[in-house]
Amino acid sequence: MQPFELPLTAAADAIRARQLSPVELVDSVLDRIEKVEPHLQAYVAVTAEQARREAREAADEVAGGRLRSPLHGIPMGLKDLINVAGAATSASSRVRTGHRAEADSTVAARLSAAGAVLLGKTHTHEFAYGLTTPQTNNAWNPDRIAGGSSGGSAVAVAAGAATFSLGTDTGGSIRVPAALNGVVGLKPTYGLVPRPGITSLSWSLDHVGPITRTVEDAALVLSVLAGHDPRDPASLVVPPADYRPDAGADLAGLRVGVPRNYYFDHVDAEVEAAVRHAIDQLQALGAQLVDVEIPMTRYIKATQWGLMVPEATAYHEQTLRTVPELYQADVRILLEAGQLMPAGDYLHAQRSRTLMRQAWAGLLDEVDVIAAPTVPATAVAAGEEVITWPDGTVESASDAYVRLSAPANITGLPSLSVPVGFDAAGLPVGMQLLGRPLGESTLLRVGHAYEQTQPARELAPVA
């Protein structure tokens, strides 16, 4: 096994045991990037020399007995919404031409302090306002979409071109590409991971979190990222925590909610079969399955768009007025539509969110987690804009991909996407686990327990 093939936890163990040098690991991943990047286009920019320099520094520190954290010497990619001092934050947009960040974002600073090695910045759908990341190809089939908006981050991890990465999630932008590329994506509780220094799409829906090969890997990264930052008004005051799940796979006494509405409506048959099989595995591990009714489903789409569109337009107000021609057409149209939305609609969406949070809190009194598909279909072909369901219903691909992930953004609940197999075309399927506020430890425990029943996942077979 080559070093680039190691999940984060295995690589960290090998570095701690002096069986692997950070230099060997980073060189291996950089070689992998050079091989696969022409096929995938996951990165906006690769900072190879800086990464090698950081790897040498990490190796010297580890050799001197100064291991900072399990992330010390581990190579990562950061979505190009996340500021790194002196580097461009392009947001994959011509609007940001010439930009250079003056300071690290909170998350970049925390990862740097933990000793993680930056490989480069990964592609996003322009300003994170989309679910495809059109400039990046799916890791399992380059003719399929990567998913978005954190498409580059998910593809890099799936292909071994990063040991882990960070993405952002406003309506599913961590979990959607994670599911479509067969990796793990965690959207934490709103406010658990602070956002200063991250380009916003919609401040009241935005989250930042890890994309990794395994659930345990996600827990290691979250342990570094989580914690209060007073510069973020939404940041929660929480004590330091180690989110790593126990080694055991016993779920006795855990109540898993299985939705009887919404989450399995208009879902591809192969996706449903894979997710239900995974839920059966949770039951085999001792979990109790409980049928649940998802509340206020008719308002989910309107609430998500009613919050996101005006907030995004407000953020882009100046550049939309001065350089509208620099935006891609799909993003510019959405931003201009936000200018036409009455303030009353935004207030109605806020009220709907409040009611939805209350209803979901009641639902999560009945169960410990909810298990459902992450997305209703595997990755569509590039350029395919609609999905036609067996009953003749036609749905835009973007609406389909955001439909099952949006409730966790509206409510702020933590949500974890875990790979649970493949469809007949060899494309990955993801299962979504949703939990109570600050219930990350439970989600990670359940996801990790499921992983223990499965063979180790392979990297995507990129040409």
Report on this model:
Pfam families: Amidase. Residues 24-444 form the Amidase domain. GO terms for molecular function: catalytic activity. This is Amidase. The chain has a domain at 3-249: Amidase signature (AS) domain (Amidase signature (AS) enzymes, Alpha-Beta Complex), CATH 3.90.1300. It has 15 helices and 13 strands. It has helices at 8-16, 22-40, 48-63, 106-113, 151-158, 175-181, 215-225, 269-284, 300-315, 317-322, 329-338, 343-366, 397-403, 406-411, 440-452, and strands at 43-46, 75-79, 117-122, 164-169, 184-187, 207-212, 255-259, 288-292, 369-373, 386-388, 394-396, 415-422, 428-435. The strands form two sheets. Strands 1-3-2-4-6-5-12-13-9-7-8 form an eleven-stranded mixed sheet, with helices on both faces. A two-stranded antiparallel ribbon has the order 10-11. β7 (255-259), α8 (269-284) and β8 form a beta-alpha-beta unit. α2 (22-40) runs antiparallel to α3 (48-63), α7 (215-225) packs antiparallel against α15 and α9 crosses α11. It is globular, with a radius of gyration of 20 Å. The mean pLDDT is 97.
